[in-house]
């Protein structure tokens, strides 16, 4: 495939992934309001997607021996953690607010790099963090005191923290190791992440106590009744399987940095869909704050170093170039790896 055609295809897949992920909350919230516990909806989503991806997991079963820690971390954080916290959050706060708070993850990644790993970050990335945090204050409307749902906000922050783990794990698994081991197949990692996440959520959610009759009825979407099973199919196939796979392929065709920037559209898509399909209207300050969060995330995620004239990048499509004694390259590489898992 020609380079320009590959970029065009990658951009299209990245947009498709953002749309697919962005619709997860819109489909899940009616099920929650119909009587399903948020954890049960998460379990249905992850377990259903794990069954669909089971043949892929079998094909890449060698990952169990070669990358067990990566698979376990991916399953616990990028799948079980992000999904559980996000779905619990949207049961208490609007979908747009929950996702915008979750998009503080790029800022939190920079905090991890700067204060935990003690590596420098660029001034541009720091500006992105400040802008995102400032936007969050508008999203939750802090000037109104504690009238917003504190628990819902904390749950959304929990999703953001789990997403940080996903970014860090994606960075560790995206390049060839020092022992010459090839990087793991990303679709295989997703398949095992879903399987592990399903096992963990089975123990936590205890689906045997779920009200299965809800799936045989209907759920209301802004006054319109929709079959509950149709919403479940939407969540499993479109918002999970297709969303993850198109996202991963787009990273391969573009770069983690570019695909990550396109992924910022997910929050916009989710907010618009919630507005149109669920009737969740955000105030003008919240919309302004949401724009600030997205712009801040855009700046932070796109703050990749320039390619030097000397040694070239640490891997194809990583968006990270090797520079002697420059910690910023490594720090920004972690930020730009992977995509959101909502």
Automatic annotation (TrEMBL):
Membrane topology note: Multi-pass membrane protein
Segments crossing the lipid bilayer: 38-57, 69-89, 95-113, 125-144, 150-169, 189-208, 228-251, 258-278
Keyword list, A-Z: Membrane, Transmembrane, Transmembrane helix
Region (Disordered): 303-342
Domain EamA residue range list: 10-139, 152-299
UniProt cross-references to Pfam families, sorted A to Z: EamA (PF00892)
Subcellular location(s) of the protein: Membrane
Family statement: Belongs to the EamA transporter family.
Protein name: Membrane protein
Organism: Streptomyces gelaticus
UniProt lineage: Bacteria, Bacillati, Actinomycetota, Actinomycetes, Kitasatosporales
């Amino acid at each position: 495939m020609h380079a320009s055609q590959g970029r065009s295809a990658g951009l299209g897949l990245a947009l498709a992934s953002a749309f697919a992920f962005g619709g997860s909350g819109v489909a899940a919230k009616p099920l929650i309001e119909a009587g399903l516990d948020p954890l049960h909806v998460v379990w249905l989503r992850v377990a259903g997607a794990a069954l669909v991806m089971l043949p892929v997991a079998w094909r890449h079963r060698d990952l169990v021996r070669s990358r067990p820690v990566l698979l376990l971390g991916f399953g616990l954080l990028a799948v079980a953690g992000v999904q559980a916290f996000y779905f619990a959050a949207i049961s208490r706060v609007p979908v747009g607010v929950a996702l915008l708070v979750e998009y503080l993850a790029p800022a939190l990644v920079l905090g991890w790099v700067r204060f935990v790993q003690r590596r420098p970050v660029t001034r541009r990335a720091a500006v992105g963090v400040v802008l995102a945090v400032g936007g969050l204050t508008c999203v939750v409307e802090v000037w109104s005191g504690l009238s917003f749902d504190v628990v819902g906000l904390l749950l959304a922050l929990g999703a953001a923290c789990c997403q940080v783990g996903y970014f860090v794990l994606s960075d560790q698994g995206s390049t060839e190791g020092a022992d010459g081991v090839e990087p793991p197949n990303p679709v295989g990692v997703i398949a095992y992440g879903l399987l592990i996440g399903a096992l963990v959520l089975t123990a936590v959610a205890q689906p045997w106590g779920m009200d299965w009759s809800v799936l045989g009825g209907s759920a209301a979407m802004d006054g319109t009744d929709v079959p509950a099973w149709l919403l479940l199919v939407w969540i499993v196939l479109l918002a999970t399987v297709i969303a993850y796979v198109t996202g991963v392929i787009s990273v391969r065709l573009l770069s983690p940095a570019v695909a990550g920037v396109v992924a910022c559209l997910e929050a916009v898509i989710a907010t618009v869909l919630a507005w149109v399909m669920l009737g969740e209207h955000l105030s003008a300050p919240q919309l302004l704050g949401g724009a600030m969060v997205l712009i801040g995330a855009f700046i932070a995620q796109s703050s990749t170093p320039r390619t030097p004239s000397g040694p070239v990048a640490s891997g194809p499509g990583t968006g990270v170039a090797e520079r002697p004694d420059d910690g910023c390259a490594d720090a920004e590489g972690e930020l730009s790896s992977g995509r959101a898992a909502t």
